[in-house]
Amino acid sequence: MLLNHLSKYLESVEGAIRKLERVYVERYEEEILTAYRVNLRIRIRFQTGHMLELNEAIISEENQIRHIGYGTCQ
User: Fold this and answer.
1) CA quadruple 41, 45, 46, 48: dihedral positive or negative?
2) Three-state SS across 20-73?
3) Of 61, 64, 58, whose CA–CA distance to 37 is shortest?
4) CATH architecture entry for 4-72
């Protein structure tokens, strides 16, 4: 079971994406590795044709969220 504050973080990211206008979400993937670690992969295509792709590794330490890695497409 995923820790509550990690679940809330993922919900907030998903909520922020849902508020975006004129975009198409090509990928939204939450990879739950353990109750303390999650990988998040997002790819958003804008109406202009531009694309934003993010990869994020998140862990819980002492009930705090810590981002241990970010990546973007090349």
Assistant:
1) positive
2) CCCEEEEEEEEEEEECCEEEEEEEEEECCCCEEEEEEEEEEECCEEEEEEEEEC
3) 58
4) Roll (3.10)
Residue pair 37/30 in contact (Cβ under 8 Å)? The answer is no
Residues 6+ apart with CB under 8 A from 74: none
Give pTM, 2 decimals.
0.84
Radius of gyration of the chain (CA): 13
Q: What is the pLDDT of residues 1-50, one digit of tens each?
A: 678 889 999 999 999 999 999 999 999 999 999 999 999 999 999 999 99
Task: Return the number of other C-beta atoms located less than 10 Å from residue 22's C-beta.
Answer: 7
Both structure tokens of 28: 């939204």
